[in-house]
Amino acid sequence: MVIEDSIDIAEAIDAKLSRAGHHVTLAEDGISGEELAIHGEFDVVVLDINLPGRSGFDVMAHMRGRNSPTPVLVITARNQLDDKISLLDLGADDYIVKPFDIGELEARLRAVTRRHQGLSKSLIRVGPLEVDMSARAAHIAGRPLELGRREFEVLEVLAAHAGSTVSKDRLYVKLFGHDDVGTPNAVELLVSRVRKKLESGDVEIVTHRGAGYVLRSKAGTVT
User: Fold this and answer.
1) Strand, helix or coil at 13?
2) Dihedral sign, CA of 137, 139, 144, 148?
3) N-terminal to C-terminal alpha carbon distance within the chain
4) Minimal CA–CA distance to 24: which of 46, 39, 5?
5) In this structure, are strands 72-76 and 45-48 parallel, antiparallel, or unpaired?
C-alpha cells in the first residue's frame, strides 16, 4: 500500500513495484489511506509524512493505536533528527528521505518485509526447496522450477510462512490485490498447479479445510 499525495512519486513507485510482480494500492490523502491501512491486509505500507487530510504522523500513531501489525516504511522530506526519532518511536519500521532512488526504496521494502516475517535473508529453504525472494526464482533439489508470476507469488507467501497455515484470503490479496477481480477458485487452481510442480521433491502443500494451506517439508526442515 502506498499513501502518497504526489502523483508522480506514487506512480513511479507503483510502476517499479508492479514490474517486480507486486500488487499496489494507492491512496492520495491521510484519511482514506489510514482507513485502508488499518482495515486492509497488506504486506507493507509506504507512508508519506506530508499528506492532506491527516499527516503521516497521525496515520502512523492511529495504526499502532489500533494494534495494526503491518510494517511501515515512511517517506519524509524532513532531515531533522527529532522527526526521524519520533517516527520510529511511533512504530515506523524504516524511513527514506526525499529525494530517493526507487531501487533503494524497493530494497528497503524487501528488508522491512523480511524482518516482519522473521526472515534475515531473502533465500528460504524448505527441505529440498529453495525460494529466492529477491531473484523471484525457486529451485527444488537444485532443479529450477518453472513458475508463472502468480504461481511464484503463491509459493513465496507459503514459503515465508512455512509450517504455518496461510489463509485463502491472504493468498487472494497477494495474488489479486484489493482492486483486482479474482475468485477463490482461482486461488485453489494456482495452489493446485504449484502443488503438482513440487511433487518430485520432499515438500508438500497441505490443505487445511476452512483454514488455508501449509507448505512443509516431509522431513520437517525449514531454514
Assistant:
1) helix
2) negative
3) 28
4) 46
5) parallel
Instruction: For residue 188, give the nearest of 164, 213, 152 by alpha carbon.
Output: 213
> Among the listed ranges 99-108, 146-155, 171-180, 202-211, which one has the minimum average pLDDT value?
171-180
What does residue 118 show for φ and ψ, rounded to 5 degrees?
Answer: 80, 20
Residue 16: which H helix or E strand, with range? Answer: helix 7-19
**d(Cα 154, Cα 43) in Å, to the nearest integer?**
14
pLDDT at residue 11, rounded to an integer: 93
| SS3 category, 1 | coil
Inter-residue contact 188 to 135 (CB < 8 Å): no
User: Is residue 71 a contact partner of residue 116, using CB atoms and an 8 Å limit?
Assistant: yes
HSE at residue 121, side-chain half, CA atoms within 13 A, is: 7
Query: What DSSP string runs through 39-98?
Result: HS--S-EEEESS-SSS-HHHHHHHHHHTT----EEEEES---HHHHHHHHHHT-SEEEES
SS3 (DSSP) at 104: helix
Q: Summarize the confidence of residues 110-116 as an average pLDDT.
A: 83
Which cell numbers hold the place of 129?
526447496
Neighbour count for residue 109 (Cβ, 10 Å): 24
